[in-house]
């Protein structure tokens, strides 16, 4: 009976502190009092939903001064669309309905705010009968014979 002493208690499944408890302010100060070595690192994006790392080119991009913009429809093309539409007796809404686009698309093309889309430009060309692309902008559209 020498092995079973009433004064000592053996705990079999004692768990260590959890990760959150080990990182708490109390755990850190207790470890400092005991003289243990601590390794603390500050997370640079803690508490934020940043999934991607900052690339090495960030400073280079910050120094970049060139402003990149999409090319817009020229005012010349806008005037041709407006004249062709008026000669056909169409409003912006009528032309938009005819080519299955929104009226705002026609308004953007006429005032030069739109980014040119060849598909939309082709529809407008066919609807008003004037060329909008290439060298001869504003000339009548030539009907191409259909291939048999």
From TrEMBL:
<dbReference type="GO" id="GO:0005634">
    <property type="term" value="C:nucleus"/>
</dbReference>
<keyword id="KW-0805">Transcription regulation</keyword>
<dbReference type="Pfam" id="PF08523">
    <property type="entry name" value="MBF1"/>
</dbReference>
<keyword id="KW-0804">Transcription</keyword>
<dbReference type="InterPro" id="IPR001387">
    <property type="entry name" value="Cro/C1-type_HTH"/>
</dbReference>
<protein>
    <recommendedName>
        <fullName>HTH cro/C1-type domain-containing protein</fullName>
    </recommendedName>
</protein>
<dbReference type="InterPro" id="IPR013729">
    <property type="entry name" value="MBF1_N"/>
</dbReference>
<dbReference type="GO" id="GO:0003677">
    <property type="term" value="F:DNA binding"/>
</dbReference>
<feature type="compositionally biased region" description="Basic and acidic residues">
    <location>
        <begin position="33"/>
        <end position="42"/>
    </location>
</feature>
<feature type="domain" description="HTH cro/C1-type">
    <location>
        <begin position="81"/>
        <end position="135"/>
    </location>
</feature>
<dbReference type="InterPro" id="IPR010982">
    <property type="entry name" value="Lambda_DNA-bd_dom_sf"/>
</dbReference>
<dbReference type="Pfam" id="PF01381">
    <property type="entry name" value="HTH_3"/>
</dbReference>
<keyword id="KW-0238">DNA-binding</keyword>
<feature type="region of interest" description="Disordered">
    <location>
        <begin position="16"/>
        <end position="51"/>
    </location>
</feature>
